[in-house]
Amino acid sequence: MPDSALSGKTVLVTGGAKNLGGAISRDLAAAGARIAVHYHSPSDKGLADETVAACVAAGGDAFAVEAELTSVTEIRRVLDSVTGRYGALYATVNTAGLARGNPMTEVTEDEYDAHFAINSKAAFFVMAETAKRIDDGGAILNLVSSLLAAYTGRYSVYAGSKAPVEHFTRALSKELAGRRVSVNNLAPGPMDTSFFWNAAAPGEEEFSRAQTPYGELTKVEHIVPWVRFLLTDGWWLNGQTVFLNGGFATR
Ligand SMILES: NC(=O)c1ccc[n+]([C@@H]2O[C@H](COP(=O)([O-])OP(=O)(O)OC[C@H]3O[C@@H](n4cnc5c(N)ncnc54)[C@H](OP(=O)(O)O)[C@@H]3O)[C@@H](O)[C@H]2O)c1
Fold it and tell me: Does this UniProt record's set of keywords contain Glycoprotein (predicted)?
């Protein structure tokens, strides 16, 4: 349904072609927003094109942009393509991320660097480059993880590389003082997408389900309404991390 608060507004969704990012792109487009659908792997071009088509069919406008976001040059290129096309930027929803669930003794240097490159460095510069271009009154949202509130093994490098984003968020929310830009994180619980299944160990699904009073994994549908809310009526939340996990973990 069109939403007057989002109609005609421009939103960059990193990782916006599939899974959670794909659902966010579609939902915001249905509210009338213009969406820059970022995707990473060239093999996802078809998915990105489908998401763009769905956004347009839903009543918004959209275009797809491929990029490797661990490069600051690429981040600038993406953001310049957004403002070049739409002339403004109301919000960035940064869903890009990487997770492999390995014990610390098995994490390689390359895996460590890859996690910090996308989960920390890319998040930092996506936020910073967004801040240089964003409209007054806009919003920046990062996807982090409910593992930031959990006490567990196997995800040291994933959770550890998401943790700095909370500090980036606090700092930027203060630095944007006077511009009414809200900067926040959403922290889903273990979520039923390929991202979870690629990282999960045998038995992890059952364990994760058992940790919530509802006995379910998080679904993208549980997260999407929060994105729309924080980009509209929920703007008063600032500098925070919201744990969205059906009771999996709290902090
Ligand atoms: N699923 C879960 O259990 C869960 C739980 C809590 C939080 N989260 C967070 O939620 C967000 C979305 O996850 P999802 O479940 O929807 O999975 P997803 O679709 O795999 O989202 C991750 C996105 O990041 C992109 N990406 C990875 N490396 C990149 C790079 N170097 N440069 C640019 N983009 C890159 C991926 O593209 P490629 O696939 O092409 O590499 C993908 O589009 C992630 O930030 C994740 O950490 C997920």
Answer: no
Decide: 143 in ligand 1 pocket, CB within 6 A.
Answer: yes
Classify residue 3: in a domain, yes or no. no
Domain that holds residue 102: 10-244
195 CB-near residues (< 8 Å, 6+ apart):
19, 97, 99
Is there a contact between 98 and 123 (Cβ–Cβ < 8 Å)? Answer: no
**How far apart are the CA of 58 and the centre of ligand 1, in A?**
24
pLDDT for 182-217, tens place per residue? 999 999 999 999 999 999 999 999 999 999 999 999
Structure tokens at 75: 């981040």
40 lines ligand 1 (CB under 6 A): yes
Number of domains the chain contains? 1
Task: Determine the atom of ligand 1 nearest the C-alpha atom of 41.
Answer: 40
Tell me if 125 CB under 6 Å of ligand 1: no
Secondary structure of 86-103 as H, E, C letters: HCCCCEEEECCCCCCCCC
Cα-to-centroid distance, 178 and ligand 1 (Å): 32
